[in-house]
Design goal:
Chain lengths: ~475, ~100, ~500, ~725
């Protein structure tokens, strides 16, 4: 193991060690004070985040090109660590309130983050697979974390079965790629492809890989688990899943396809196009009929996967891909903050035994908790893509990039589905402001802080989006 | 020597059987086994390719897959047991209260 | 700091200070909230006066420009770009004036959820001023849509019995119109590589057939907002259900966003299309004038009557704008202000009496002048201003508009329409007299109506205006006389910009 | 400020004060009047008007010094935009000076008269607080009228033109909650609205005329327009003048827009005198005279104006002859006399028109005010009578009047809801001539001044009306035979109905207790009457048709250009005088030889349908209702209710647009929320979104295996595409 090997995986290592140690330390923490575990895990995430940010600009590859720490992975890692932090903050009060407070929760969350980070750093399909499983398995457990609730169990089982099922395709895809290119290293794949004619085996393999990633990011038609799992899993887990898994999935998708498979871009672009369009349409249309806020947000997360996937549609077009992918990353950031904020509000209103999750439970929120309602309004606006929120900026970048790449109709579908989405997002706002009701919301420091921070980011960044976009552009520059 | 194509075809057949098993069986355990079958079909293909290419990375990858599958088994079985405890059944079609 | 202290930035965003302050006032302390909102809106008005003081009317360029890049990557070129000129300055002043007046008018009318109410009002002010000051098409669109939100809530929360229906209708109609505009804006921004309005105008060179489509797309959004006949159907609902102050702002400023949009965007951006469209828009304007006036007469509800009268009045504005000569356009701009003042004041007054009687069915009124002499006198003045009595503000606008339209008809701007548009529109002057006087008669003249007894039954005696109410309307009354008798300062502000605008048109 | 003339401007700078003084007066009364006594209010208002009169005199002096040359005084900028350039500029020339003297002079007298009249009127109508309002309106009227006659452009004239229309509305509707007989009613307010709307119809014409004028002449300023008359096509000028004529028919109550003026008698009598007889209604005449250069250049338009005037003169005179209300007779008489004036200015006899305008202002104001005095007298008499019936102890002793009135007021307010007069057991109309008779004895001063007015109006030499009317007839005989004959017959009718009135009101026996007990009016009323009577008698001296006497003609020449100064034509004068005397004789035969008795039908009734027509104003109101008002109401209601509301709002927007939207989102959702369950939801599906969403919900059936199938489906599709593409 060389110096560069270590540098490459140092963030991941820090977090892994931290998580392992925490597992032990947790034994010493009394049951009533599991908050300490939460704080410690947050500390771990923060330390890693600090280190990651300090690495901005560096670019190292380790383990014979299996793992890399480049601008892209730093960007994604930072985002993942922030998601982890937000996930911890949301969980802190929630699992206590729901009676499922156990120290493993945080450890599992940390391991999952490790998997996600590794996924962003992976440059070998083997590592991709490993990382994917490393992020998935803790999530299966987390989804079923509320053991005494059948919904949670069901969510865990469904997620697990379907996740394993899709891993099967992924692995088989890797096998075929290996067969086609004699290697699993993506740089080597590029090299191989450039010296030989494309083979059907490679294409099929790539498609099967896409299925594995598509499952993780929940795009149509691999999305069906999403509503059920998101609804059944404890809300804090859902919040983390919707963000973290999506980020990691897209990161891997991007790195693998952009780096390894530009040669089959012509075909894959069409596939991406259809999937993206179908996801946007289906996610938004299905959300219209939802009456449960968790399911509504689940469908919304599907829809947003479609939007983000838009950014990858032109991935073979060298002139626009950088901007397009940067736009995708920006949109991811926007989505993560908005999404966490929205889930934060949901958590604030959720009661024991799955109560407080119907849309009608939001009636009168504006009167009772104006700040919470205002925050929710901001998140809903951002999800629609209305000013003054980061969601608007994200959509702007995204649609523009897609238009510049020549996919005008996709952009139009994007706009139209956004309009459709306005119906159900605004319905939440209407219910909060215009219906009378007596909602009771849990006000808890960490939760409030999370909501406040995400709301602030959602609004403030929309006024100064340039720096973030510049960072995202910088991050993806070296990929191509 | 048996041509590599045969291995690949076999692995494809195994993979298909695994997929169909997931689709048609209702017992969670059997579904899980079918998934294992899919993974192993992939393993077979990788090993076969590895031997043809005279590359170790294929064989190494298979080890990883097997290890990961074992980890999945651990988690998966635990989940199934948990479900069995509350539902007295491991019929996955019974586990469908979340829908719509 | 330099960014914040820009005069125009301050005008737009100063109400935000009030919003923040309001957030920290406990909900029980209603008066503190009212005073805060009032103080902030008055301060905004003062800032706008400062802008007026710095404004150089003879300069036809944009002034006090604030220009910063906002989104200038990924192919976009969107800027934070503010500027003011003769076309917008009066509308900004109208907005900043009407906001404190509306807030004052709700002093006792709104008791429920005062905090949110005031916050929405201040947000609305931000949105409206933004629309008038922004020079970047994209930002304009954002502010344009943003104004919908607070108004939606104001109608939807504090409105009448069918408020949710009305709010939704208001929202959807305007939204539906603006989607087309968004597409047109995007086309312009992508095609012209910038969203800056002055740059786009300077570039020009949009092919005539595309101009027509873009013109229609913009016009769709604006025409619904104005609202031009036959797209007015949302207006009576919105007005009837909106709370008093909501109606004041809706009629006073929000409708002007549409007419302002025409003069700010449609005419300079698409000059050829404008020339082609002029007779059609003038035709719709003329129909609106007559139709609105006729329908007004048959309304039993005061607010509905005034709402339909807005259709008629804004028909005049549209007619004037598309006369495309300085008389017409300047008259139209002044008439926007006039309509804001007169109709705003009418809604205020209706609100004052409604607060006491709880009915807007004016046929049960009658003889109110005897009980409310001061109110009657003020109502009369405002009504007369609305029907365009010379010496009051409405006349100056209507006269210059009709004069301009007649000239446009003679000079062939209206093609087949000729002077008929102006001629027929002038009949609207008669019809305005009919419905306004009818309303005045039924409310204030004649024997005492049932409403007096009805109100007494509920333990209230109808009283004349109190000092707060008088203070609320007096600024508007002053303006009614000022513009009517001495409009020179107002015309001086408008004229150079209008002349410049007309100069850029390829008139035959 | 610039001065357009280089001559000595004298008191020209005072011109704006013609407007300012009345405005100051009304402001003082508005703001502080509630603290003033009635006397004080009246004094302030009268002083304001009087000050305007003084200014008028000073301006007259100034203008005479300049031999009638026009002088202009710019007060402020008004509208400057594009090529439109208008200022608040006051124009003082011989024509406007003449008008302002009449307006402020007669106006001031009427202010003074009104102090007395309104003192009583507000008490009879039981709202003392309204005294102040009356004088505010009256001052406003003077101000508006001054703007009208001193404006230097057509638009400034129009400001005054509409301003006086407003005052007319306010003052006609002064007793807005009552009717002519002081019963609670909408009728007065309707009269007010009618007046304003009819005027607005005329104003529409005025506006159109200004538009044409502006785009033809490039200006609305008098001098600039008149200078260019030769350069503009006659067709355009005809259009302008005819549209102005529409304005004139509205303001000066000519056929076909005269209908508002008779109803306008709902206003208090001083209003009828000042606004609806002496000043405002003559604005149309002034407009034509002011536009003399325009009219003179297009004889076709002139003929039409003259005929409109002549027809109106005769038509209104016939109606006047059939009326029983003392003020209605005078109202139709006014319309008729205005017809004379309009005919005169239409024929180019501007001086004659203005001359008649002035004399008419004197004698018609006199007649109206006297009629007001008669009505007050009748009311007082009725009051005594009623009180006598009611309470035998209080028999109308002068010393007790105040107390009685007090009692009566208490009684009135007590029985407010039943209507004031029903309380006294009968509806008494103090203005109905059939209730009068014999007032000559009880109201001698009123009788004599009324006689003065009557002879002046009837055109008996040498009273003022004779000279002015004769001049018109003379001009007509030379320019327009048709108009001449119409006017001559109208003159005959004029003398007849005035005779009829005098005989019915002042002669014979009292036909009602009220008439018997009528009382003479106080000095504040009679003194102005006497002054006006003097003017009515002597006013003809202004412009006697003898060499060296055409004072008014010479005076106006400076403004109106060369005017022909015709000598007295004995034939024309003879015919008209003879006809007038004949008419009075006939009326004497019909109404005085055998005095008109109580409950007697009018002797004119023997004319049958003709009298019915006269009495019912030739059913013009009914015709207008049939032709314009009812259709307007019906059409507006139809548009509003059927087209706009039911079709456009309810059907198209609610059903079609909102319905579609609801379909798409809300209805379906709410239904679902209520009923729960996929089946119920499936039943409620309406739109593709809903059904799609519903299908998706069905697909999302919760079974893991179908989810796996979906994944497989995706795999198959993608692979299929990639392999078989």
């Amino acid at each position: 193991m060389t110096q560069s090997d270590l540098t490459t995986i140092l963030p991941v290592t820090i977090l892994t060690v931290w998580a392992c140690v925490l597992l032990l330390v947790d034994l010493l923490i009394p049951k009533t004070r599991k908050g300490i575990t939460a704080l410690l895990s947050a500390l771990g995430l923060a330390v890693t985040l600090g280190y990651t940010l300090a690495q901005i600009g560096s670019e190292v590859t380790g383990f014979n090109g299996m793992v890399t720490l480049d601008g892209f992975s730093i960007f994604v890692n930072a985002l993942l660590l922030v998601s982890g932090l937000l996930g911890v903050a949301l969980a802190y009060g929630y699992i206590k309130r729901m009676g499922i407070e156990r120290g493993e929760y945080y450890t599992l969350l940390l391991f999952s983050v490790v998997g996600m980070m590794l996924m962003a750093q992976a440059t070998d399909l083997i590592v991709v697979f490993l990382a994917l499983e490393l992020l998935s398995i803790p999530l299966y457990v987390l989804a079923a974390f509320a053991r005494d609730k059948t919904d949670s169990e069901e969510a865990g089982l469904k997620y697990f079965l379907l996740g394993a099922f899709s891993s099967g395709f992924l692995v088989y895809g890797i096998a075929l790629i290996f067969g086609a290119t004699h290697t699993t290293n993506i740089f080597a794949i590029v090299e191989f492809v450039s010296t030989s004619t494309g083979s059907l085996l490679l294409t099929i393999g790539a498609a099967l890989l896409l299925i594995g990633f598509g499952f993780k990011v929940a795009v149509v038609p691999f999305h069906m688990w999403t509503p059920d799992v998101y609804q059944g899993a404890p809300t804090a887990v859902t919040a983390f899943m919707t963000s973290g898994a999506k980020i990691a999935g897209f990161a891997a998708l991007l790195r693998v396809f952009a780096t390894a498979f530009p040669s089959i871009a012509a075909d894959m672009t069409n596939v991406f196009w259809v999937i993206s369009a179908a996801t946007m349409i289906l996610g938004n249309v299905a959300a219209v009929a939802q009456t449960d806020i968790k399911r509504l947000l689940a469908y919304s997360s599907i829809a947003h996967a479609g939007y983000i996937l838009m950014a990858f549609v032109p991935y073979g077009n060298e002139t626009v891909v950088a901007t397009s992918v940067a736009a995708g990353l920006f949109y991811l950031v926007a989505y993560v903050f908005t999404n966490f904020g929205a889930w934060g509000v949901v958590i604030a209103l959720e009661k024991e035994a799955g109560k407080g999750l119907a849309l009608d439970d939001y009636a009168g929120l504006a009167k009772k908790h104006p700040a919470l309602a205002a925050a929710m309004t901001i998140f809903m606006l951002s999800l629609i893509g209305l000013p003054p929120t980061i969601g608007l900026i994200g959509k702007l970048y995204l649609f523009r990039a897609v238009i510049d790449a020549g996919f005008v109709w996709l952009a139009i579908i994007g706009v139209l589905t956004s309009v459709v989405s306005a119906f159900y997002y605004l319905r939440v706002v209407v219910i909060m402001y215009m219906k009378d009701g007596e909602p009771a919301a849990e006000r808890e420091t960490w939760l409030d802080t999370t909501t406040l921070v995400t709301a602030l980011v959602t609004v403030v960044v929309s006024f100064i989006p340039q720096f973030l976009f510049a960072w995202a552009s910088e991050a993806v520059l070296k990929l191509f | 020597m048996i041509p590599v194509d045969y291995y690949i075809i076999l692995s494809a057949i195994l993979f298909t059987i695994g997929v169909l098993g997931v689709l048609v069986r209702r017992n969670a355990l059997i579904i899980f086994m079918s998934i294992e079958l899919m993974l192993n079909a992939a393993n077979l293909a990788i090993v076969a390719f590895g031997s043809v290419f005279e590359s170790f990375s294929g064989q190494i990858f298979v080890f990883f897959v097997i290890a990961v599958a074992a980890a999945e088994v651990a988690v998966g079985l635990a989940l199934i047991v948990e479900i069995f405890r509350s539902k007295r059944s491991i019929d996955v079609d019974q586990v469908s209260s979340l829908k719509g | 700091m330099e960014f914040i202290l820009q005069p125009l930035t301050l005008v737009i965003f100063f109400p935000l200070v009030g919003v923040l302050a309001l957030l920290f006032i406990p909900s029980e302390n209603k008066n503190a909230m009212r005073w805060t909102a009032l103080a902030v809106s008055v301060a905004t008005f003062v800032i706008s006066l400062w802008v007026l003081g710095r404004f150089d009317a003879s300069n036809t360029d944009l002034q006090m420009v604030a220009r910063y890049n906002w989104i200038t990557v990924a192919g976009w070129n969107i800027q934070y770009f503010l500027g003011i000129d003769g076309l917008s300055i009066l509308l900004v002043l109208l907005t900043t004036l009407l906001t404190p007046i509306s807030i004052l008018s709700t002093w006792t009318a709104v008791e429920e959820r005062v905090k949110e109410y005031m916050i929405f009002f201040l947000l609305l002010e931000i949105g409206m001023n933004g629309v008038f000051l922004v020079q970047d098409l994209f930002l304009f669109y954002i502010f344009w849509e943003f104004t919908l939100v607070p108004m939606y809530f104001i109608i939807g929360i504090w409105g009448g019995p069918r408020r949710i229906y009305a709010a939704l209708k208001f929202f959807l109609y305007t939204m539906a119109g603006s989607i087309l505009m968004l597409l047109a804006i995007l086309w312009l921004g992508i095609h012209g590589k910038t969203f800056s309005l002055p740059d786009l105008i300077a570039q020009g060179g949009i092919p005539a057939n595309i101009q027509m489509w873009l013109f229609i797309a913009f016009a769709a959004a604006f025409a619904i907002k104005v609202p031009m006949w036959p797209l007015h159907s949302w207006l009576p609902d919105a007005h009837v259900e909106a709370p008093t102050a909501g109606s004041v702002i809706l009629a006073g400023v929000l409708l002007k966003l549409g007419t302002y949009g025409f003069v700010r965007f449609n005419i300079p951006l698409f000059p050829e299309a404008t020339l082609q469209a002029a007779p059609w828009i003038a035709l719709l304007g003329t129909i609106g004038i007559i139709y609105g006036a006729a329908v007004s007469y048959a309304q039993p509800d005061i607010k509905k009557l005034v709402a339909y009268s807005s259709v008629s009045h804004l028909g005049f504005v549209m007619l004037g704008l598309f006369a495309l000569n300085p008389e017409g356009i300047a008259g139209a701009i002044l008439q926007m202000i006039n309509h804001g003042i007169s109709t705003g004041a009418l809604f205020l007054l209706v609100g004052m009496v409604y607060e006491q009687t709880h009915t807007r069915e004016f046929r049960v009124y009658g003889g109110l002048w005897k009980i409310m002499p001061v109110f009657g006198a003020i109502y009369l003045i405002v009504s007369l201003s609305s029907m365009g009595l010379p010496g009051l503000n409405g006349f100056v606008g209507e006269f210059t508009i009709l004069l301009g339209a007649w000239g446009a008809g003679q000079n062939g701007i209206f093609y087949w329409g000729g002077v008929w548009f102006a001629g027929i529109s002038a009949i609207g002057v008669i019809m305005a007299a009919i419905y306004i006087l009818y309303m005045f008669q039924k409310m204030f003249m004649g024997p005492q109506g049932e409403v007096v007894e009805e109100t007494k039954k509920h333990g209230r005696a109808i009283r004349d205006l109190n000092w707060r109410e008088i203070v609320t309307v007096v600024p508007l009354l002053i303006l009614i006389f000022w513009i009517g008798l001495y409009p020179a300062p107002f015309f001086n502000l408008i004229a150079p910009a209008v002349n410049h605008l007309v100069g850029t048109l390829p008139l035959p | 400020m610039h001065l357009s003339e280089s001559v000595n401007t004298g008191f020209l700078f005072l011109a704006p004060w013609l407007v300012f003084f009345p405005v100051i007066g009304l402001l003082i009364n508005t703001l502080f009047g509630h603290k003033f006594s009635e006397r004080m209010i009246g004094a302030v208002a009268s002083l304001a008007s009087g000050a305007a009169f003084v200014v008028s005199v000073l301006l007259y002096v100034t203008v005479s010094g300049a031999h009638g040359e026009a002088m202009r005084w710019q007060l402020a900028e008004w509208m400057h935009i594009g090529t439109l350039s208008l200022d608040w500029t006051f124009r003082v020339d011989s024509l406007s000076t003449t008008m302002m003297l009449v307006v402020s002079g007669v106006g001031t007298l009427i202010h003074i008269y009104a102090i007395g009249y309104m003192h009583e009127d507000v008490r009879f109508k039981n709202d003392v607080g309204r005294f102040r309002r009356f004088f505010v309106f009256l001052n406003l009227f003077i101000a508006a009228m001054m703007v009208l006659i001193t404006g230097d452009s057509y638009l400034m004239l129009f400001v005054g033109w509409e301003g006086v229309g407003l005052c007319s509305f306010l003052l006609v509707g002064f007793w807005y909650e009552l009717d002519l007989l002081a019963r609670p009613s909408w009728s007065n307010s309707f009269a007010a609205v009618k007046a304003f709307v009819a005027n607005r119809v005329g104003d529409f014409g005025f506006l159109i005329a200004t538009f044409i004028m502006f785009w033809a002449f490039g200006s609305l300023q008098f001098d600039k327009v008149f200078q260019q008359v030769p350069t503009v096509a006659p067709g355009v000028i005809i259009a302008i003048t005819l549209f102005f004529l529409l304005g004139v028919t509205g303001k000066s109550a000519q056929v076909p827009l005269y209908v508002w003026l008779p109803d306008a008698m709902a206003g208090p009598t001083p209003v009828s005198a000042l606004i609806h007889a002496a000043t405002m209604v003559t604005a149309g005449v002034y407009l034509v005279a002011r536009s003399a250069p325009l009219y003179s250049s297009v004889p076709e338009a002139q003929n039409i104006v003259a005929l409109v005037g002549a027809v109106t003169a005769l038509f209104a005179a016939t109606i006047a002859a059939g009326q029983f209300d003392i003020k209605k007779v005078l109202a139709y008489s006014t319309i008729s006399q205005l017809g004379f004036m309009v005919a005169a200015v239409g024929m180019g006899a501007y001086v004659a028109g203005i001359f008649h305008l002035v004399t008419h202002a004197f004698f018609k104001a006199l007649l109206f005010l006297s009629a007001g005095s008669v009505i007050l007298g009748m009311e007082r008499g009725h009051h005594h009578a009623a009180h006598a019936n009611h309470d035998n102890h209080g028999k109308g002793k002068k010393g007790k009047r105040k107390e009685e009135r007090h009692d009566a007021r208490a009684e009135r307010s007590h029985s407010d809801s039943e209507g004031a007069d029903e309380a006294h057991g009968e509806v008494f109309d103090p203005g109905d001539m059939r209730n009068m008779g014999g007032l000559r004895k009880t109201m001698p001063v009123t009788f004599w001044v009324y006689m003065a007015g009557m002879v002046a109006l009837s055109g008996i030499p040498p009273f003022s009306g004779f000279w002015s009317k004769d001049e018109i007839l003379l001009d007509a005989s030379m320019h327009n035979q048709a108009a001449y004959w119409l006017l001559t017959i109208a003159a005959f009718f004029t003398a007849f109905y005035m005779g009829r009135q005098i005989w019915m009101v002042f002669f014979g026996e009292a036909r009602h207790e009220a008439a018997a007990r009528a009382e003479e009016s106080p000095k504040v009323i009679t003194v102005p009457l006497i002054i006006l009577a003097a003017l009515a008698v002597l006013g003809g001296a202004l412009n006697l048709p003898f060499e060296g006497f055409h004072n008014l003609g010479h005076w106006l020449e400076a403004t109106l250009g060369e005017v022909e100064s015709l000598p007295l034509n004995l034939q024309v004068a003879g015919i008209s005088t003879l006809l007038a005397l004949l008419a009075i004789l006939i009326s004497w035969l019909m109404y005085a030889r055998k005095p008109f008795a109580k409950d007697q039908t009018d002797p004119l009734a023997s004319l049958g349908l003709f009298f019915k027509g006269m009495n019912n104003k030739w059913w013009m109101d009914e015709l207008y209702h049939l032709l314009f008002i009812n259709p307007y109401i019906k059409i507006s209601y139809f548009i509003a209710e059927v087209i706009d509301w039911r079709f456009w709002h309810d059907w198209f927007h609610e059903k079609v647009i909102m319905g579609t939207y609801n379909w798409i989102s809300f209805t379906g959702l709410n239904e679902y929320a209520d009923q729960k369950g996929i089946d119920a939801f499936a039943n409620g599906l309406g739109t593709w979104t809903q059904s799609l969403a519903g299908t998706l919900r069905k697909v999302q059936n919760g079974f893991v295996r179908s989810y796996a199938l979906s994944i497989l489906l995706g795999v198959v599709l993608i692979l299929g595409y990639l392999i078989f593409k």
